[in-house]
Amino acid sequence: MSWAEATRDVLLDSLSCSLFSFRPTVPQRQWLEESSPIALWRDGNQLGKTTGSLVDLVHRCRGTHPWQTVRRPPVYAVVVGVSLEQMGQPGGIMEKLYNLIPTEELDPKTGFEPGRGITGKPPRLVFRSGPGAGSVIFFGTFKQDPTRYAGSTIHHVLSDEPMPAGTYEELRPRLLKYGGTMRINFTPVPNMPDMQWLRDLIDRGVIVEHNHGLKPENCLPAGAPFPYYSRTMLDQFRASLPLPVQRMRIEGAWDPLVDERWISAFSTETHVRGDEPPAGAVVFVGIDHGIVGGKQAAVVGAVVGADSLRPRVWYLAEHVGHAQTSQEEDARAIVSMLHRAGLEVEDVDLWVGDRPADARGLVRKSNSILRRHLAALAGIAYNRFPRITTPRKFDGSVVAGLTMLNSLSATDTRGTPHLIVSPRCPELARAFMVFQGHKQDPSKDILDAARYPVERLVGSQRAVALSLRYG
User: Fold this and answer.
1) Do 311 and 460 belong to one domain?
2) What is the CATH number of the domain that holds 226?
3) How far apart are the C-alpha atoms of 23 and 258, rounded to whole Å?
4) Is residue 244 part of a domain?
5) 212 & 314 share domain
6) Which end of the chain has fewer surrounding CB within 10 Å, N or C?
7) Per-residue pLDDT for 80 more than 90?
8) Would you say 327 and 427 are in contact if contact means Cβ atoms under 8 Å apart?
9) pLDDT, tens digit, for every residue of 304-339?
10) Kind and range of the H or E element at 136?
11) Within a 10 A sphere around the Cβ of 394, how many other Cβ atoms?
12) Positive or negative, the Cα torsion across 226, 227, 233, 238?
């Protein structure tokens, strides 16, 4: 077995460990030994924050904590997050938690579905036997009052995301009543809610903070011969990240660097070239309606290996409107764009268009209207023209999408980059070179059009993996 294969095996073990085979790293061990009522672990990606917090949670519910004295069961715990859907997604906190609990100790009615998470209304895990008999883990969201699930009795709270001040203020008094504990862990991101209230509590000593940084010595499970991230792998990870978020994703820094390029791995000398995609590539069109009313941007490109961890992307032609236009004019511009790339409407495998925009009531933009005009220009019946799908937007989606494009820019195979921009796309190339993350920057429009279809083809989970491992 090669060193790289052994490293991957150790990483897989650390990601799918059960409660009884869990081997903590030094940061995880310090977290599990933390006895303060309220503690925060703010750190870089892939340091095992979630796993460490879940091991702590399960041992509290079972009364079997190896690293500190905890209350006797039954224990009523609440796990809070942005949404139940996010917590239940593949590889999410619900799946990790379920894999840590001996299933024979759970109520047989407790359900778990891969990709959906813990089932039930409300979703919860009930310990019916074993040392934790009687303990319950409830799930709530920041928009709900999570105390309605556990009534007035809460012994422990876990938040795997930046917690809003209102949620903290609601939960803390209930914990104080029973001498309960709270654990918060997350990696900061540029568009997270204002966390100044949390930073103030840390400065005042109300919350104990842990921070270590993503280093090889912090990625070494107890008893393992080598870390699951080597120095070379971490250097590649850092290079794949946009400059503004490198310190956030590596060190858990509170704030991004300002006035730095987001697609920092891109250069016109390396990535602007006339290479064409191979036969069989998936052809896409991405469309953004623009921050200025009526000004639409579009790109046509191609992807190969979208279902792998090493996809390759070509951007072949672009259209950037500089004045308000009708959707019929937009459709004609898109057809012309396709022709410049040597393509026809029928060659497009995937259409992704922005959500409807009104432009303050002056110009109505929507995928359905645009689709009707494109069908007419192509001589295709409307009901036979492919649907123009909408992008998946969520908190952090812009950061995730641009990070993925930066990761692709940072990768090459035998000197050929995995993201190529045709000389027919000068506006897109310029946007890659100048965009610094400002929402009102007009160059964001063409970048949105470029990232929407790639995100759709690669998928959100693989996009995260791309930004965590490259080279």
Assistant:
1) yes
2) 3.40.50.300
3) 38
4) no
5) no
6) N
7) yes
8) no
9) 998 887 899 999 999 998 777 888 999 999 999 999
10) strand 136-141
11) 13
12) negative
